[in-house]
Amino acid sequence: MTTLIIAEKPSVARGIAEAVGARTRKDGCIEGNGYVVSWCRGHLVEYDYPDAYEDEGWDTWDLDNLPMIPDVWRMSVGEDEQGQYDALAGLMARPDVDMVVNACDADREGESIFRRVYGFAGCTKPVRRFWSTSLVPEQVMADLKAARPQSDYDGLADAAEGRAKADWLVGMNASRALSCTYRGSHLSAGRVQTPTLALIVARTRQIEGFRSSPFYQAVLGLAGFEAYGDRLDSADEARARAEAAVGRLARVTSLERKVEHPKAPTLYDLTLLQRDASTVCGMTAADTLATLQGLYEKKLTTYPRTESRFVTEADIPDVEAALALASTPEVAGAAVAGAFVPSRADASRVANDDKVHGHGAILPTRLLDGRAMASLRDNERKVASLIVSRLLAAVMDPATRTKVRLACEVDGNVYRASGSSVQDASWLAVDEAMRATLGSARRAREEPDQDSEQPIPDDLSQGDEVEIASARVKDGKTCPPKPYTDDTLLSAMENAGRSIDDRELRDAINDDTMHSGGLGTPATRASTIEELVARGYACRKGKSILATERGCALVDVVCDSLKTPELTARWELELSRVERGETNLPAFLSGIEGYTAQVVADAKASFDPAKAALVCDRVSVGACPACGAPVYKTKSGKSYRCSASEWAGPEEGYRLLSGDGFNLSATQCRKRITDAQAAKLVAGERVRICGLKKKDGSTFDAVCEVGPAPYSGFVTFVHDGGKRGPSKGGAKRGRAGARRGGKG
Fold it and tell me: 270-394: what fold?
C-alpha cells in the first residue's frame, strides 16, 4: 500500500520526497519507495467572495444588503489552482493509497490549508499529522515516524477556521459598508490592516504637526570627557555660561557607576530578522521574507514563518552541528568568526521547550557550508549572514560593561555627562563584527552628546573638583518623531498589545501560545504593510513609511473599534479557548456576527461629507467660497463641487439636498478648463480663458470669475471697465452636482 504525503508548497514537497526516497516525477506529484508526495501551493480551496452569493443579492454593492452573514459557507477552487487540486483529489481517491499525511506547515494556516482540500474532495481515509521545521533528510524521517493522529489537532483547525471566517465577516462587511457609504470609492478595512494604518497615520500627523524650535547648550570640556548644560532658548546666555566656566573648577555633585552583564540576544524569529534586515541591510520586510523562503527551499535555513526565538532541548545536537560550520571564516566571514570564542559558547542557552510553539527559531542548517555561502546572491548572503551571526552571538556568555552617569555644578548651573566602557565584549564583539561586515557599523558621532559612549575616569568620585579645560556652545533644533521604517513598524505591530489597558487582553495578544504576537503574524505583517502601500493608504519615501491623505481620511471615518489592537486581542483570547476546547467555534462566530452588524451600523451612521472626496482619493482644487469645505472634481470629471453638499440622483434631476450647492462646470462655452484654472476660480481669482465658443461656432477669449450664489455651474465674464455680465446660457441653473462619494 501507499502513503500520500501532502505538503504546502512544491519546494517543501521536493525536500520531503528526497528524504523518503521518492524519485519518480509525475504530473502533480513525486512517487517511489511506497510514497506519493504532492503539494497544495498554499490555499487551493478558499471561501468565496460575496459575489458568489447571487441568490442573497450580495453580488450587488448595496448598503441594504449588509451585513452579509452566510448561513452556509461556500468554498471553491481558484481557476489557477484547479489543475493541482484535481491532481490531489485524484491521488486521495487512488485505491492503493491507504494513508494520508498532512505535511503542510506546522501552524494554524497549514492545518486549514490541508483540511479544506481534504474535506472539499470528500476524502475519508485516515490522516496522520507531520510536524517538522527542517527539510534535512534525517529530521524529516524522524518527524514522519513521530507523526500523530490528525484528530489531535482538531482544536487548532477550529481556531484557524474561526479566524478566517471572522476576518471574512468583518473585512468584507466593513469594506463594503464604507465603500457604499462613500460612493465612488473602493475601500478596504480589517482587524489587522486598519489598526496598522492607524499607527502610521498617528505618527505621520505627529510629524506634520511638529514645530521645531532652536536650542543652545554650554558644553564643558573636562578630564577627557564633555558635560552638557541645560538647553537654553538664548544663544547669548549659553555663550556667557561657556565663557565664564573656562579655567574654573566643576564640582561633581552626583556620580553613579553601574556594572551590567547584558545577556546574549535570542535567536531570530521572522519579525526580529525582518527588523534587523531593515536596519542593517536596508531590506524591506517583504524582501526579507521572500529571500528567507528561498534559503529554506534550498535547505540552508529552517522554517521561515516562525514566532519562536528558541529551540527545543531535542534540537541541541542540530544547533551544535550548525555551530561547527557557522563559526568558520568561510561561512561567518573572517571578522565574525574571529570575534566568536568557541570555549565561551553553550548551545543550551538557546533551548527552552516552554517557549517553542510549533516551529523553533530560525537557524542555519548543516548544509550551509562555505561552498553554499559562496554561491548565494547578494540578498541571500546578507540574510544568511545575519542568521549565522545571530546564532554565534546567542550561544555566548553574557558581556560585561560599566555605565557611568554624573552631574557637576558651576555657578549654580548643572552639567551632565554619561559614558560607558566594555570590560568583556563577548557576544557584543560578534554583533559589532557582523554590522561592520554588512556595512552598518555604528559611526562615530561628529557631534557627541550627553548620551555618547565617552570614557569617564575610573578614579573620579562624587565631591571631586575637575578643571574645565575648554567650553563651547552647541546649537541644535528639536526634532519631530521619526517616521516608521520597516523595522520600527514591524516592532510596533509586534508589540501592539502595550497600548491595551485591559490586562487579560494585553496578555492575550502578547502570548505566543495563542499564535498572535501582536497585530498579524510574522508571516503576514510584511504583506499587510505592502497592501497599505499598494492601496494608496501609505507610501514609501526612502526607508520611511508615511500615511497618504487618503489613508488619513480612511482612518478618520472607520469606526473606533477597528482602529485599535483590542479587537485582535479579544479574538485571540477566544480563539485560544477554542483551540484548547474550552469553548466551541459556533459560540465564537456568534459573537463575531453581532460585532459585524455593529460595524455596518456605525459606517452608515458616521458619514462625513467633508471626508468623502479625500477617501475617494481626489485632489482638492481649493476651499468652497461659501462654506470653506474642500472642492473636488467629480468622478465623471464634469464639474467641481463642494464636498459638504449633497445632491439627489439623476432620477430627481440632481436636486440639491443639503449644503451650499457650490458647483463649477468643467466645460465653459464648450471649452474644457484645466484643474489649475478651476483652482484659481474657486479661490476667487479672475482667469483668462481662451478658445471659448459661441453658438455660431466662432471662438473668443474672456476674463472670468465665479459669480455669487446661487451657483449655476457657469462662470461670469468680466467685461472692460470691470462691469460683469453672465455668459450666454449662464443664467440657467446647471446640474447641481453629484451624489455623496462623487458620482456625477
Answer: Topoisomerase I; domain 4 (1.10.290)
